[in-house]
Design a protein that fits this description.
Oligomer: single chain
Number of helices: 3
CATH class of the largest domain: Mainly Beta
Distance between the termini: 25 Å
Structural class: mainly beta
């Protein structure tokens, strides 16, 4: 822990009056958690095993709500992490000891957070035409953004563009990141030498910044390069896309007898890297059907997102053929293909090219960000699918301004039934739009985020509050 030299409390040795000697507080230390300017660590030593937590609040803001850390149980040495820290702000706090159900509060102490270092300042710039048009649901959450090159950064930013939380890793980038139902951040890590969304490590951290899981290529059955997606299933197993290489004789089309085709697959592993299930695109499609195989063999299909349908089967999108497939999560059978040349009828008024961030939204509809390379205009699509009939009806199509056309990467997620958060990765910009495509808010970023993921207050609680 790096101590806060300017803190009003640097090192305290005290005993609380009014509580038993056994549960008394012997020592308090205040500093930075993992050298992170927005996380304050308070170490508390008690006379005997006890439960301890901390209440804290901005000291000079009238009627400010008190925030609470998680409870440290049944020990005499406690490490508690305070998030929700704003730079250069005075905070007050009390240490609460719990002994046999009885809570005792210490007197109130203070510390002052430090100013953000220059390299963390001015990373994001938010604008809105009218703050009243921004839905309260959006204000009551944070946006998860990742920096993909070393040193890797994961950011949580509020709608005002303020950095509210971050986590940094050395020598690697956060290639892809996801917020899980377990209130953790699950990511693919990769070096600067690895392609944009490809990596060789899996890292899971909690909101305190503590490492929960760190798998590296070579451990267990984790032998392949992974890319574009990292998820958890209902069993807590890791689900990702991997590069599947097939050695093939391409001499009859101008290649070599021992040529390599790079395809894609879905892999499920337990948290120790043991393979549970695997599927390959080579099991479902003949690469020789691709007349341009010699040109596409280095990245034949380019799977770029993976998610679940409501029945637990997989939905996967491919950049190179512009299709979205549904895959049976048990048998690996392709259930349907959606898009140009697919077997679900595409509505006449809807055509998309190169989908990203495919998922089923809160209304049960298929939703994705459309790169729109055919028309040089990106946008958002949602479709109501009639899967038994293999038909689709257009539910929503948002055309984003041509100025933020984004031919690679990107995302679109519903915040409310009327509002959608879009990420135009290559333009370094995120926008909040309504269903008519009117921009209500923009966030310019210093990094080309792969996606922008909205995390609401319930998911952040109790560690972070927007």
């Amino acid at each position: 822990m790096k101590y806060i030299l300017k803190s009003a409390v640097f090192l305290l040795v005290l005993a609380l009056s009014g509580c038993s000697e056994k549960a008394s507080i012997k020592e308090i230390k205040v500093g930075l958690h993992n050298n992170n300017e927005l996380k304050i660590q308070i170490d508390v030593n008690t006379g005997s095993d006890a439960d301890v937590y901390i209440k804290y609040w901005p000291n000079k803001i009238a009627d400010s709500a008190k925030l609470v850390t998680t409870l440290s149980k049944g020990k005499s040495k406690h490490t508690l992490v305070l998030c929700n820290i704003l730079p250069k702000t005075s905070y007050a706090y009390q240490v609460i000891t719990v002994d046999k159900g009885t809570e005792t509060a210490s007197k109130t102490y203070t510390f002052e957070s430090r100013e953000l270092p220059e390299w963390l300042k001015d990373q994001f710039k938010a604008k809105s035409a009218d703050d009243k048009l921004i839905p309260k649901e959006f204000k009551n959450g944070l946006i998860l953004i990742n920096k993909r090159y070393s040193p890797g950064m994961a950011y949580l930013v509020d709608y005002k563009g303020r950095l509210r939380w971050y986590h940094m890793i050395d020598n690697m980038g956060f290639k892809v990141i996801n917020f899980t139902k377990d209130k953790t951040l699950l990511s693919i890590l990769g070096s600067n030498d690895e392609p944009t969304s490809y990596g060789s490590q899996i890292l899971e951290i909690n909101l305190n910044g503590d490492t929960l899981l760190h798998l590296k290529k070579g451990q267990g059955d984790f032998k392949q390069t992974i890319h574009h997606e990292i998820l958890k299933n209902t069993k807590g197993e890791l689900v990702t896309l991997f590069v599947d290489q097939k050695i093939t004789d391409l001499s009859h089309i101008g290649g070599t007898k021992q040529d390599t085709i790079n395809g894609d697959g879905i892999m499920v592993m337990d948290q120790k890297g043991k393979q549970i299930w695997k599927w390959s695109v080579f099991d479902a499609l003949d690469p020789f059907a691709d007349k341009a195989l010699l040109k596409t063999k280095k990245d034949w299909m380019h799977a770029n997102s993976l998610n679940y349908d409501t029945d637990g089967n997989y939905i996967i999108s491919f950049y190179n053929n512009g299709q979205i497939w549904k895959i049976d999560s048990k048998t690996g059978k392709v259930i349907w293909k959606f898009g140009k040349g697919g077997d679900i009828t595409l509505p006449a008024e809807a055509s998309f090219s190169q989908a990203h961030a495919v998922h089923i939204n809160a209304e049960g509809n298929l939703m994705f960000f459309d790169n729109g390379i055919d028309k040089h205009q990106s946008g958002v699509y949602t479709f109501k699918l009639n899967q038994p009939a293999k038909s689709a009806a257009l539910d929503m199509h948002i055309k984003l301004p041509p100025q933020i056309y984004n031919d690679r990467m990107g995302s679109a997620y519903m915040i409310t039934p009327e509002n959608i958060l879009c990420c135009s990765s290559k333009r370094h910009i995120m926008v909040l739009t309504n269903r008519k495509g009117v921009l209500l808010w923009t966030l310019e970023a210093s990094v080309p985020a792969y996606r922008a993921i909205f995390v609401n207050s319930e998911q952040l609680s109790p560690v972070l509050k927007p």
